[in-house]
Amino acid sequence: MKRRTLLTGLGGLAAANIIRPASAAGTLVGVTKTEIKIGHTCPYSGNASSYGIQGKSHAAYWKRVNDMGGVAGRQINFISLDDAYNPAKTVEQTRRLVEQDHVALLFNQLGTPTNSAIHKYVNQKKVPHLFLSTSADKWGDYKHFPWTIGYAPSYRTEAQIYGKYIKANRPNAKATLIYQNDDFGKDYLHGLQDVYGKDFDKVFVKVVTYESSDATVDSQVVTMKDSGADVLVTAAIPKFAAQVIRKTFDIGWKPFHVMSNVSASIAATITPAGPEKAEGVVTSQYLKDPTDPEFKDSPDMKEWRGFMAKYIPDGDVTDVGYVYAYSVANLMHIVLKQCGDDFTRENIIKQASNVKPVALPLLLPDMMAHTTPTDFRPLKQLQLARWKINTWERFGEIIGA
Amino acid sequence: MNANLSRLLRAVFVVAALLVPLFFASGYQLFQLTLVVAYALSVLGKNLVTGFGGQVSLGQGAFYAVGAYTAAILMEHFDVPYWATIPVAAVTTGMVGLALGLPALRLGGLYLALVTFSMAVSVPQLLKYKLFEDWTGGVQGIVLLKPDAPFGLDLNPDQWLYLFSFVVGAALFLAANNLVRSRIGLAMRAIRDQPLAAEAMGVELARYKTLTFGVGALFAGVGGALGAIAVGFVSPDSFTIALSLTLFVGMVIGGASSISGAIYGAVFIVFMPNLAEEISKAVPGAIFGAILILFMFFAPGGIASLLEAQLRRLRAAR
Fold this sequence. Notes:
The structure holds 2 protein chains of 2 kinds.
Chain A: H1 3-14, E1 35-42, H2 52-67, E2 75-82, H3 87-100, E3 105-107, H4 112-125, E4 129-130, H5 155-169, E5 175-180, H6 183-196, H7 200-203, E6 204-210, H8 218-226, E7 231-235, H9 238-250, E8 256-259, H10 266-273, E9 282-285, H11 299-311, H12 320-338, H13 345-352, E10 381-388, E11 391-400
Parallel strand pairs in A: 1-2, 1-3, 3-4, 5-6, 5-7, 7-8
Antiparallel strand pairs in A: 9-10, 10-11
Helix pairs in contact in A: 2-12, 3-4, 5-6, 8-9, 9-10
Chain B: H1 3-24, H2 27-52, H3 60-78, H4 82-107, H5 109-128, H6 133-136, E1 142-143, H7 157-181, H8 183-193, H9 195-200, H10 205-231, E2 233-234, H11 241-254, H12 261-279, H13 284-298, H14 302-317
Antiparallel strand pairs in B: 1-2
Helix pairs in contact in B: 2-7, 2-10, 2-11, 2-12, 3-4, 3-5, 3-10, 4-10, 7-8, 7-10, 8-10, 11-12, 11-14, 12-13
């Protein structure tokens, strides 16, 4: 037999593997009378493995939900896989979740390049891809990607808020910016450019970058100091933000320092940098800081501490990462409850894009999560905060974008 | 055993290896197997350079990235069909390999390890570099469409891609097999084992070393192109130094001086991390490390040599 005919003949065999078409009522996958399967990826190994605590927190959260009877009489089967922050691995693991484990939805997968790699795939497959653990601006594109919804205020929104503040309070600023050379960092550059327009190059006298694989940014800090700037904007992940804070202090430079809120973590940034060296640094928040005495007795904080003590007793309760994970898991929980008894993928995405303004636990007072079919950015508000004697002191009003 | 029968058996085995998964594996599993083919080719390239050629290279991931980006850029910006990107990726990475190999190989030994290491480190940053951004998509990377099966074949994209990769992979494995058994292969091994004697016999060291290095890069480039088409996405974060180290692990675990070892090594690096994760979410890296040490303890020459030893024992027992 010639190969061509062999292949054609075998092709007929393959036709037996037909995919079950969706019924008119919608596609019901990963949900039985007793179970709802939720898929998740984050790095448990590799360079970014410190983010693994988010997966740990989610697993604990759904365990508590199950202990309390589950959702609509169903237990949550939370399947979390390691992608080592490698996009190729994320594709593999996500395909496993969708095609082998048959999850109902994907929740809070971590990282910008990693989610970019599966963005098209999950939308082709029409799998709800909800409340991602990345604040890139592109997750709000409901027109082209109707199955993907973000969560936290986007980096660009955040940078716009910083730009507005600097413009209003330091009209004669000579500013400098350091950003990570990727989507994440560039969102800040664009946000500041949104605010300053053609004046950007005049105000920002020096703009430098670093790579996430760099060892240090010490030389960049020296370069920025030499530019004579009096305002410093740092768009960096914790390791490098800590270096900027330390080096700035050590070389005796005292700019007005604004820092991206991904690095606001005390455990990951401030403590390694040295709390006294961070005095006066400004960032923004949307979550309650667990070390802030003001919230010590607030009901949601107490509830969270109870959760941590019971389900993650070895977790660091000063780490904002756990606070973040708890708040976003709550939003997911609300959406599942809103689904009633209809857990088709169509209804899940419909409910996820129709969340009436709701104050999630551990969001700052007066902040609301909110989605509509034309607004896939659940959180859009921030409040500025200044590091002062061992805690973040919030100031000014809640700013919306 | 009769030589013809043995050859027939081998052919049947290869066809079965191709067809069984094609019709019985899920799309996800086929995708994993396609990745195995992509990694196997890259590990094979490494085996040629290190196992047969005796040169320590740590930069195979860089060539994998060049192959992947060549395929992606051709498909995205020039509308080249996916199958036509494979030979271009092969030639491009082969040339890059030769160009880099030329000066590096004259240094030789540990210096080559350093040069290739720095290559692997710098590639993700070069991919983000402003000048190339229009082509590489910068940090955003490039999203690719999955090819459909041609000629009206009734195969889904995963099945077709696996079939396609398998055929490309089989052809290159055959080529490598012939290469190491040829005069060139003999020269390569002579250089590895006795460079002075080889030179005295009239083997041009630099020429053969550079050639081997180029061929090794070529294999990685084809692997990278297949991998990029299968994953449907390339970005600098996919090709960090971790990839080069993973391929290195694949080479050692599979068996460096063996052709089939590349397949075992690739299977190992695709499936073992998942297994490690099943065992422990808290410390998958440590589990993976422990598994590596166990393998080194029980299969010091790689899986290939372990299997060969078993096979020999079976034959002796008969």
